[in-house]
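Shipment paperwork, digital attachment
Item: protein structure file
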Amino acid sequence: MLRKITSKLLLVTSLSLFSINFVSAQGGHDAQHKSHETTAHEEEKFDIGKMIMHHISDSHEWEFAHGLTLHLPVILYTKQNGLEVFSSKRFTEGKGVYNGYINNHEHIHRLNPQGGIDEEVHVWDLSITKNVASMLLSAVILIVLMSTVAKSFAKNRGKAPKGIQSFIEPIIFFIRDEVVIPNIGPKYEKYLPYLLTLFFFILINNLLGLIPGGANLTGNITITLFLAVLTFFITHINANKHYWLHLVKPEGVPTLMLPLMWVVEIAGVFMKPMSLTIRLFANITAGHIIILSLLGLIFIFQSFAVGGVVTLFTLFMNAIELLVAFLQAFIFTLLSSMYIGSAIEEHHEADHGH
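Attachment content:
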């Protein structure tokens, strides 16, 4: 037990120190680079807001640390020029401009002959961005991980689990027995694969986002919205007649009150996916912003005392973020199970509170 606790503390400490070294190195490079662009009598100020947005936003290249950048493929389509594919390194070499395109704060536009943005040309950006690359990486990790667990389970059937199976199997059983079955009921098997995939996909991406240089995938509202929409469609495609009748004519509501109840019920239908979207997005993004803000104080105050205090707070926040990574995956899966269960429960079960 003591060994496990010690290992976890060492993991949190190493991640935190790695984060501090990463931001320190990058901040130091930025200051050095900017000093060459200013006169000897001018002092360059550290832009903490720019640093935070650089780390939490999506981009066409994946910068793990200064000098270690993965240039991703840029895939563009316009009606005038068709499909064009090139490396994002071209934009870096051309200071944001390449082959008649300009990368303006990660939004790519077509340039007109005068050098301005051509508003008449719509550019379809199908590029493999940092978030897309991270999503593909997490999908590969998830497939390899679960395939390994499945093979191990088949090999050790009736025996004690070994290796990675001994870690993943209790989590699977916990989600099944404590989350899915109590909220969905006897028909849970149909929805279990989706809910397990949902949980582990969110968890893996939450953890990847904590690694220095990692992408903030679950802090991207487009991703959280897509996951919430998946739950929305699964819920309403499988909803039974009692669910739809409850939306149209709730029991015990006077006829004169029905128009008001329709507004309330319809609003409730769409508020559920919105709550899933905003909760995951806000919690993950807020955690990253807090940690980066704390680290930014080192460069603002440039004090050893402040650096020591910030280090302690960063260690604490990294431990909290590890907890939040598991907690947000659990909450998203729990609420999805509740929404699906409420849509497929039988009338007599709803009456008796089952």
